[in-house]
Write a structure and sequence with these properties.
This protein is α+β, with helices and mostly antiparallel strands. The chain is built from nine helices and 14 strands.
Length: 303
């Protein structure tokens, strides 16, 4: 059965949740929640542990949509059962407590499109940068897909802990670099053929007549383009202004201005790449926009 609208999806999910509670037994708490994962708005079944602590989450969108209600409920229950087994077997690591100091020590940035994430941005702390949003997330331990790997910072939490978006942005910029690192990789033919590994930005001179891939050692590398300190360091190493082509939410491509690539050709290449699912997962697409960093004015521009 294909789910067409958000309302139909939520109604279907509530019906499945009722069946799951019945199958798991009296006292079981399973909530239907809207969950944001990268560029997706998903319908999650959240298993609540004793005391209301959030346990594993599975997603309606990950299940076959052509099943009957009874079949889909059984499928969801089986997936939740497996998720619970993995959740209980995970290493006992304490997640960062979402209080003021812990948030400031752990918050990092994720770059997302404002247009694609309007609903999520309405309720969660972020800073707008041109047509992008620097979204604040606090990483949490996870050992399998059913457990969400980071949490957003809702405005109500920000207000409760007396936080401002300015201090979150400052802390998140610092933490993103310190926790995940900044690495670059040449995009010339020889380096790519040899499979050369990325190198730390602070120990690399970007003097080649080629493009460079900029990313972190982990995920969400495109967030680096929203950190002015990183852009200044790239400019210092490159010794000239440069274009930024976001190839995904995880990395960006840097092209020197002196290479004289036309903006239109960069935009066209990015547009085509973003629509090839064999190149970029649709949930990892950041934007069709291309950007330019002006070192003299320390300014990021959408071109």
């Amino acid at each position: 059965m294909a789910v067409q609208t958000n309302q139909e999806k939520l109604e279907r999910a509530e019906q499945i949740a009722v069946g799951m509670r019945r199958m798991f037994g009296e006292g079981t708490e399973i909530e239907v929640r809207t969950v944001y994962r990268r560029n997706e708005e998903l319908t999650g079944f959240c298993f609540l542990l004793q005391g209301g602590t959030l346990g594993p989450t599975i997603y309606l969108e990950d299940m076959p949509q052509d099943l009957s209600l009874e079949e889909q409920t059984q499928e969801a229950a089986a997936r939740m059962q497996e998720a619970l087994k993995m959740f209980e077997a995970r290493p006992k690591i304490t997640a960062p407590c979402l209080e003021r100091e812990q948030i400031l020590q752990n918050v990092v940035i994720q770059a997302l499109s404002q247009e694609k994430n309007k609903n999520m941005l309405e309720n969660n702390a972020h800073v707008n940068v041109l047509d992008l949003a620097a979204v604040f997330r606090v990483p949490v331990p996870a050992t399998q897909k059913a457990v969400y790997m980071s949490t957003l910072i809702p405005y109500e939490l920000m207000e409760r802990e007396n936080l401002t978006e300015e201090e979150l942005y400052e802390a998140a910029q610092r933490n993103t670099v310190e926790k995940y690192g900044v690495v670059v990789r040449k995009m010339d033919y020889r380096s790519m053929q040899r499979g050369m590994k990325p190198k730390p930005l602070d120990s690399t001179r970007l003097t080649g007549k080629c493009g460079y891939m900029l990313s972190t050692n982990e995920v969400n590398g495109a967030a680096l383009m929203l950190i002015p300190k990183v852009l200044r360091e790239v400019h210092q190493n490159m010794r000239e202004d440069f274009y930024i082509v976001p190839s995904s939410i995880h990395e960006v491509i840097l092209w020197k201005e002196s290479l004289h690539y036309s903006v239109e050709s960069m935009k066209q290449s990015l547009y085509e790449m973003n629509r090839r699912t064999d190149v970029v997962d649709p949930t990892d697409v950041l934007t069709d926009s291309v950007y330019f960093y002006d070192g003299q004015w320390d300014k990021l521009i959408r071109v």
